[in-house]
Write a structure and sequence with these properties.
Blueprint lengths: L7 H8 L2 E6 L12 H17 L2 H19 L5 E7 L11 E7 L10 E7 L5 H21 L7 E6 L3 E8 L2 E5 L3 E2 L3 H13 L1
Parallel strand pairs: 1-7, 4-5
Antiparallel strand pairs: 2-3, 3-4, 5-6, 6-7, 6-8
Helix pairs in contact: 2-3
């Protein structure tokens, strides 16, 4: 078993996860300034990504530029990992590759203190990526505890590149945002990322 094989049912059975879905996690979050270069890149890349219409194209032409630019803005505070093998406990199925991880550490050569994990939605289905994302968030919490770097809340996001849906894990309670943010609200999406890594 790996992250991608989890279902909501198996998460509840194995980790006693409580799911709360009727919440607006970031309604008070301020919008962030979108860098001009990122706006220009996305104006050029998004039509190509949508035309190619594969998960890989969306990852390379939409998601990666956004995360790379965000990382550069906070280069002294966070690190970014892509396609990272995150094998925490194979017996519990907490193993496999995370699409992206943001960490509250500037160390780029070694992962420490993961604060947000990101899952690319398969076949553009946000809902289908939620169990995998929660499993990766549980693994991130365990990793932090093992490294004595406990963080009160672990965040996650499932994205198609065009749509972004955030999650929050506190203890065994997984909060799934009731809002899906479209790419047209990139200032809000970047505001949420900023709040996550600076609080």
């Amino acid at each position: 078993m790996s992250y991608s094989e989890f279902t909501i049912e198996t998460l509840k059975e194995q980790f006693e996860v409580e799911l709360i879905e009727d919440c607006d996690l970031f309604f008070q979050t301020s919008k962030a300034q979108v860098p001009k270069l990122l706006t220009e890149l996305l104006q050029r890349y998004v039509p190509l990504a949508i035309t190619i219409s594969t998960e890989k194209a969306r990852s390379e032409f939409i998601i990666a530029p956004i995360l790379a630019e965000f990382k550069l803005q906070f280069k002294d505070q966070i690190s970014l990992f892509s396609g990272f093998e995150f094998n925490i406990d194979k017996n519990k199925g907490l193993n496999g590759r995370c699409d992206y991880i943001l960490s509250k550490s500037k160390e780029q050569l070694m992962l420490s203190a993961p604060v947000l994990v990101m899952v690319e939605a398969k076949n553009d289905k946000i809902i289908g990526g939620i169990p995998q994302c929660i499993a990766e968030m549980i693994a991130a919490r365990i990793f932090n505890e093992q490294k004595h770097q406990g963080i009160d809340a672990i965040y996650g996001v499932v994205t198609t590149g065009s749509l972004w849906r955030f999650l929050k894990l506190v203890s065994n309670t997984a909060y799934v945002d009731s809002i899906e943010y479209p790419l047209q609200q990139l200032d809000k999406i970047l505001g949420i990322f900023t709040e996550i890594v600076t609080t």
